[in-house]
Structure formats: structure tokens, C-alpha cells
Amino acid sequence: MAEEKSKRDENALIAERRRKLDALREAGNPFPNDFRRNALAEELLQSYDRHEDEYLREEDVRVSVAGRMMAKRVMGKASFIKLQDRTGQIQVRLERDRLPDDVYVAFKKWDVGDILGTSGALFKTKTGELTVMAEELRLLTKSLRPLPEKFHGLSDQETRYRRRYLDLIMNEDSRDIFRRRSAIIAYIRAFLDAQDYLEVETPMMQTTAGGAIARPFTTHHNSLDMSLFLRVAPELNLKRLTVGGFERVYEINRNFRNEGVSTQHNPEFTMLELYRAYADYEDLIAMIEAMLKGMSQSILGTEQVDYQGEHYDFGKPFERMTVEEVVLKFNPEFDSAKLRDRDYLADFARNLGIGVEHSYGSGKLLIEIFEKTGEDQLRQPTFVTQYPTEVSPLSRRNDDDLFVTDRFELFIGGREIANGFSELNDSEDQEERFRAQAANREAGDDEALQYDADYIRALEYGLPPTAGLGLGIDRLVMLLTNSPSIRDVLLFPHMRHEATP
RNA sequence: GGGGCGUUAGCUCAGAGGUAGAGCAUUCGGCUUUUAACCGACCGGUCCUAGGUUCGAUCCCUAGACGCCCCA
After folding, report:
1. Of A34, A157, A168, A405, which has the fewest Cβ atoms less than 10 A away?
2. What are the tens digits of pLDDT across the range A284-305?
3. CA of A1 and C1' of B44: distance in angstroms?
4. Which CATH architecture best describes the domain A11-147?
5. Contact flag, residue A142 CB and nucleic strand B, below 7 A
6. Do β-strands A198-199 and A248-256 pair in parallel, antiparallel, or remain unpaired?
7. What's the complex ipTM?
């Protein structure tokens, strides 16, 4: 079956190259692995591009470079090619009479996309381009599939996502996004490591899916014959570690949520979660703001972030509003005396087209109205605080106002980037909150938190006063790479099965 | 879940109810400083899939697949 498919997949271009590969096999091993380079394209440009041709010839700078042949311009007995390595491209000049016998004739059969190694001396062409004059040239890997057209490159979105390797070969912009993603994560690690945080890894497979309000994926362990959930968050395990005395912990890893796929959502996505004992949510607000400012400066070289036609100022102090303030600001007709009046909130919500369930209390209704009318308006970096207790089952209640918790979310460009709070460390209060969630579950809410008895047991040993937060890495990378879709910042985004005609 | 747009050569794209087009790539020939090299010749197609309408459908209609975007 697979064989038939691969045969159908063959076209004349591939068949031609396969014939060339057959000929190479006749002559020896077409996949040698004994060539070693001593220079990279970008390094050479940095070191030598400022020098004149005369200087280069005098110095006789001999280098070995290797990479994928991205351009091939043959002019009879001489050619120019471009080799692309991980840093960029370097031009190579081939002259038949400077190369060993027959190498140039063989080269003429090689294709754009083949991987080559070459050695020679640097010089500059008459148009001033730094170039290697080849004295040795070897084919290191034969490429059987033709690359996209050299001028327009690969622009088909679907192919770019499905064949990321091809996208990376062809699109420097795409390579840049993933280098920047790596730099962002490295920045976070350095930032936290400098504050004595311990990086940990906790299970992806859990017997109860806790720590976030979300629908989990399920799987099954055969030899133990037990159902398992892919985690929706690492939260409860990280707090268990805080109980254990790791007072500053973080994890950067994948979460899985069995929900829709969109430009903002991928079924698996990367989160930073961290916990810090003897701190409250205000400490984390200050920390995350400092981290994002420093990150922007480090990654972009500025605290001014341009994103899809909008401009976000990371330089100014981030804005602060409570949930109730947001609701009042964007709903001028809302009666500010009735922010906690369940009947008023229910009517208001229905008028907005929100489906109101009997089980919804005023906290849930308030947050529904907030999400429907406010979130999208929060363009500049804004910390929203004082989330209702009803929708914050793991957060510590506010000392002065038990209706809300000491919780914040950070919004940028209308999107939630981070969510954090002072942790609920009263095991008896947590037990009650779990029961309330369990009741919602009974009522049919399959996103409600599952009761986690061991977590209660851990809290009973004593979780020090702690604050924690989660930060969506993918959305942050989107912001700092000006990417409109989460797929642009995931190397292998989730896609449906490829269409089979 | 609803709506809009798209799917044609390896890639980027035109196109019309009646034998399917271009550029690049490939193949062959020429060319020792090119920059999307150039000049000449050739080659290359399940027009996403299945049904329907029609003398005839890749084009029109219906359904589906996949992708992009918007809304819930």
C-alpha cells in the first residue's frame, strides 16, 4: 500500500534525480560522512566581507564550507553556486580547470537542493560579493525532490505547516521565528534560574486532570489497565512540590486541551508555570512585568512591540483594572450598584446573548460579561485583578472581600497571556471548592475540576503561603514575532489528515 | 456549529461550457565574474474527490475532503 503510494508520488523530476542517484551508487557511496567544514557562511561574511579582493588574495584565506545548494548558475566552464548553512548563504565559484579532473563535469549533473561540501580560498567578485574559489567539491547528500521555485519560494500555508522542513529550507522568516522562540524560552530560564528557581518536570499523564478548567484528552495504560488523562495543567503537582519544600519551582512544558483548533488554539501548547512561596499575587505581577520588559528589550532590542498593525508599549507601567472596573468601563449602561446582583447580572448577560444556566452564580455571570464585552478591548498590556471566587477554585480569597480572589490575568492585544494568583492553601476551603466543582460536574459541566483527594492530603501537610502563575509561551512568541496564527510559532502545528483524493 | 474565500504542472500563478496556459525548475545545446544569470529547443496535467445537468464539464449545480479568514 505504502509502496503503491510512493510510486504514485513519483513524477518525472524525482525519477530523473533517482536515476542520477543510481549512477552515483555505481560510482561509490553517494552519502559520505567524512567531510568536515571549518567555517560558517555568516562568520565568513562578518570576518571578511569588509576586506577588498586584493587583501583576501594576499592573505590566502582557505576555508571549508558545506550546505545545501540553493542556487546554481552555470556559465560553460565556470559556475557560481550558493550554499546555505544554519547561519546563512555563501557564494562559491567553480572553475573547471581549478578543480580535480572530472569534478566539474560531475557537478553539472547535481541539482539545486543537493548538499555539498567545498574547500578553497576567499575572494571577491567584481560586484564585490565574498566568494569561495573551489579547489575541492563533493556531493554529500543527493536530494531527490525539487525545491520550490527560487523567486517566490514556498508560500502555500498548508504545505508550510505540513512540511515544515521545506518551509525552513526556503523561508528565512520562518527560521527566524523559531530561533526567536528558542531565545525567548532561554531568556525565561535565565531569568528564573537567576532567582534560584528550580526547574522540574511533572507527569503529562495523570489519573485526574486538575489545575485548570478544561476538557482533557483521555488515554489508556494497557498493562495497568487504567485510564489516564493528558494533563491540562501541571499546577497541582507543582504545588505538591512546594509543599515538599521546593519553594521556587517552574516547569516549561506542554499542556493538552481537548478543544477547538484555531489561530489562537492548538490542542497541545506550551506553558510556563511557576510557584513561589512567601509571595503573593502582587509579587508575581511585579515579576512578570519586569520579565516581559526585559525580554522585549533582549529579544527585540526595544520595549516597543509592533503586532499586526497595532503597537504595544512594554516600556510604560502596565495598566491595572479589576474585573468589575472592566465591566463598568465597557458597559456604560451597567448599573454599578448591581455588580453582584444575580438577577440583574443574569438579565444583563441574556441581553448580550450569553446562555445563562441555573447553576451560574453572580461571580460566573460577571466573568461571562467580562469575557464577552471586556477582554477583547484590553489592547495595551493590562493586569486585570479581583476575579470572582466562584470561577477561581484554586485561588486564595481576598482578605477584605470574600466574593473575589487575589488573582490576576495579563492581557495584551485582547488576549490572555498570563494567569496567576495567591494560592489557596487552606485545605478545608479547598475541599469545599472541589465539592462545588464536583456539583457542577454532576450538573453536566465536563470542564469542571475533578476532585483530587491526594492534593487535599498534600495541603493538609501545609502549603506555605505561595503565589503561582501560568504564562502561555506560544501566544507570547506570537506577539514577539508578529505572527498572526499560533501555527506560525509551532514547528509542527496540529493539522487534520492530509486530504486523500 | 454558521458564513465567506480558495484548491489548475514540482513551485508561483493565469484561464475559458468545446484539443489546458505562462514564468521558474527539469532535459538537451551554447556560454570562465553570475545575482530571479542569459540565449535556443524540448518536456511536463487525476484542472481536490464523487455524483448531477449537458451533445460535451476542469469550468455550471449538489455533496464531501483539505486549507485560509470571520462569527458563535
Report:
1. A34
2. 999 999 999 999 999 999 999 9
3. 26
4. Beta Barrel (2.40)
5. no
6. parallel
7. 0.92
